[in-house]
Amino acid sequence: MNNPSHLFDLTGRVAVVTGASSGLGRRAALVLAAAGAKVVGVARRAGELETLVSEVGQNAAFVVADVADRAALGDTVAAVSAPFGAPDIVIHAAGINTRQAADDVTSEGWDQTLALNLSAPFFLSQALVPAMRAKGWGRIVNFASLQTTRAFPAGIAYGATKGGIAQLTRAMAEAWSRDGITANAIGPGFFPTELTQAVFDDPDRAARNAAQTCVNRNGMLADMDGPVLFLCSDASAYVTGQVLMVDGGFTAK
Question: Among this protein's residues, is 238 annotated catalytic?
């Protein structure tokens, strides 16, 4: 048997990662670059993206864009395809959680959450699929959540989008996997990111969350490396339409 490490080699692949300026998106961009991919980071903050590119080197580029702005989608697709060619891989890590209680949800907050967390992954993927189809190879990785299956306080809008991501992922797989394009989602537990800063600022709450997992700890950014690489590589060629929970067993208890 040949060494199976080649299954995880992304040399020659082009990846676009939204939400790449911080947190899990930034980590995903770093691990894909380390595996050989050319990576284009997309976010709204130029300074953080410049730092990412300087860390990766010549195999990275960035695009400043709001992926929730559907009117600018054509420009965004052209921009992410310019540095290295049409992407083979797209990771949708951009997201927002307004943390509005059900009685306090505003139309603006609701629409903003759905536009970024649910609509953007679909329409950006839809725009990138033709080039993937032409190559007969593509990887779409959405971001689910503990709230894909659990209800959290002040999470009704966010939870609605993350429940939607699970079905969106299955529907993408049904639509595009026959063309060699897999679609899967990662469901992170509690990781230290900007979105979860309030959780980790409360030591008692963080400890309770850790105790809820099977491994008795919260996530570290390095815990995301293997799952991301798996779903973006040939190692997952026969895996599609799935939500992989990377939560230390939080949802198993």
Answer: no
